[in-house]
Amino acid sequence: MNHFFRTAFATTFILISIIAPGSIAQQIYSKAYGQKGDPAIIYLHGGPRGNSTLFEATTANALAKKGFYVIVYDRRGEGRSSDTEAKINFDEAFSDLNTLIKDYDLAKVNLLGHSFGGIVSTLYTERFPQKVERLILVGALFSQQESYDHILTTSLKIATQARDSTMLKKISYIKTLNEQSEQYRKQTYEVASHFGFFKMPRPTLESRELTEEYENSNFSKSNIRNDKAPILFYQNESRVNIDTKPILKDIIQKNIKLSAIYGLQDGIFSKNQISDIKRIIGPQNLYTIENCSHYPFVDQQAKFLQSVQEIMDK
């Protein structure tokens, strides 16, 4: 078995039982890599409709070997944490994260929030600052409408130059949709995916090997996606299109360490957005990676691990 998928020197697997009034217990998938007692890092995956399989397969063990107690989990109703009664909203996510922290017997944690998981971890830190030592944003969403506008504006230019009538028609249709709707989000990201905004420009040997190993692993086979999750999120959550920049500023005022790692070719963020993050957290706390898009831990894993190590050592 390839070394990226060997069991870490110490692992813990916990199925957390969540019991809602009048319902049967539901279980949250989670697993820890590394030695308990080392600084705890909890990874929060993207979504809604995501899971932590890619990070777990490629990076959790490698990060644990740097001297960290790395915990991965799938949010309720997403991935391997199946729950037909899940609301898929922030309050539910906060409750389950509190249970996770309690069941792993942790006092304070470091949160590693990727993509939509960046919003979840930011709002959680705002609500429970006493439980968070450090927040690390990784390709994390923060000003959602600015990202949507950037995607559509950039895509419009590309489609116009290519005389792509199909995509021009789709972009025009998206602009008629309610910006607070699930369809607006879904179709905007479909356009971004069509134009390769989530892909690194020049895949390296390391990134190709990681991707291939993941695709051939048992983790890939458990890459479960709940297509109803985004719909439920928009039904049950009012904060569906938000700007968390004021919250990030408030988090810093509460003396919580805040850092960020972004790929310079992550197509869903404009240069102005990255500049905003830089101003908020300080240039010394922003780590940008060349030839890297939305998944720094796969696109440029060595540089990603080095960045996390430097952040944790501060």
TrEMBL record:
Name the domain of life.
Bacteria
Name the family.
Belongs to the peptidase S33 family.
Q: Name one GO cellular component term.
A: membrane
Do you know which SUPFAM superfamilies this protein is assigned to? alpha/beta-Hydrolases
Q: Which Pfam families match?
A: Abhydrolase_1
Q: What is this protein called?
A: Alpha/beta hydrolase
The source organism is: Dyadobacter chenwenxiniae
Q: Where is the AB hydrolase-1 domain?
A: 39-299
Instruction: Tell me the PANTHER family matching this sequence.
Output: HYDROLASE, PUTATIVE (AFU_ORTHOLOGUE AFUA_2G14860)-RELATED, MONOACYLGLYCEROL LIPASE
Keywords attached to this entry: Hydrolase
* Any one GO biological process: proteolysis
Query: Which is one GO molecular function term here?
Result: peptidase activity
